[in-house]
Amino acid sequence: MKQNTIWIVEVQEENTIGWLPTVGIGLTRKEARGEKGNWEEFHPDDRFRIRPYVPRKGGKQ
């Protein structure tokens, strides 16, 4: 059975190294981009990335 992909939005704040935890999610990439737009409106200097969620191997679900 095929699982649906969950898309997550992560942020890299200005003057920080590395990506911070999820700030938005979507069931489609387009939906996740909408979440990014909402966040970006109030934080224009931050960088964002959208990627598929990949659960940890052996982790709880």
From TrEMBL:
<protein>
    <submittedName>
        <fullName>Uncharacterized protein</fullName>
    </submittedName>
</protein>
